[in-house]
Design brief:
32% helix; 198 residues; globular; transferase; PseF; N-Acetylneuraminate cytidylyltransferase; CMP-NeuNAc_synthase; nucleotidyltransferase; two-stranded antiparallel sheet; 6 helices; Spore Coat Polysaccharide Biosynthesis Protein SpsA, Chain A; 4-stranded mixed beta sheet
Length: 198
């Protein structure tokens, strides 16, 4: 899986270095075999299911002793559908003054029509005031696509949250977005991969 992200970073022509942050010896070996650097190992406190992206990249920026103005892109290992053009657009937004630039995609259905479901199975609208509003009149909502985040080294080091008011989104079609967190996500990603390879 990590090979797709390394290849995308290596082949897009935007990066001087492709560095993998991990605490795992096997992943380190795979990353090096695929042409990435692994100049440090991630500490245990940043290598668990609760470690956030910003602290992980802050650690990498500090371990690499990067100059403040260097553009740094966090590219998730679980982003097999990332494209060079999307990464380039993120860099352009960063260079135009965004604090961060990240991949985002629209929700497929208006979130204003979201339901809550009780333990007994009963459903009710979270916001009943939206009941009579036509779905096409509701504001589109976007979410993090879980692919990449651009920021300056100094911004990462300051630990500014990625959803800062000056952050910008690179809009991706939902057909190229799968945030792989569960076995079901993996199955969807495999099916989508088969379709996109055709």
């Amino acid at each position: 899986m990590i090979g797709w992200s390394i290849a995308a970073a290596r082949d897009c022509g935007l990066f001087d270095r492709v560095v993998v942050s991990t605490d795992d010896a096997e992943i380190s070996d795979i990353a090096r075999d695929l042409g990435a650097e692994v100049p440090f190992l991630r500490p245990d406190n940043l290598a668990n299911d609760h470690a956030g992206t910003v602290p992980v990249i802050t650690h990498a920026v500090e371990a690499l002793a990067l100059d403040d103005d260097v553009a740094v892109c966090c590219l998730y290992a679980t982003a097999p559908f990332v494209r060079a053009a999307d990464l380039a657009e993120g860099l352009r937004l960063l260079q135009a003054g965004a604090s961060y630039a990240m991949a985002v995609t629209r929700y497929d259905y208006p979130i204003q029509r979201a339901l809550r479901r009780g333990e007994d199975g009963a459903v009710s609208m979270i916001d009943p005031a939206q009941m009579q509003v036509r779905s096409q009149d509701l504001e589109p909502a976007w979410h993090d696509a879980g692919q990449f985040y651009w920021g300056r080294a100094a911004t990462w080091a300051s630990q500014l949250p990625v959803f800062d008011r000056r952050a910008h989104g690179v809009g991706l079609p939902s057909s190229r977005v799968v945030d792989i967190d569960t076995p079901e996500d993996w199955e969807r990603a495999e099916a989508l991969f088969q379709v996109l390879q055709r």
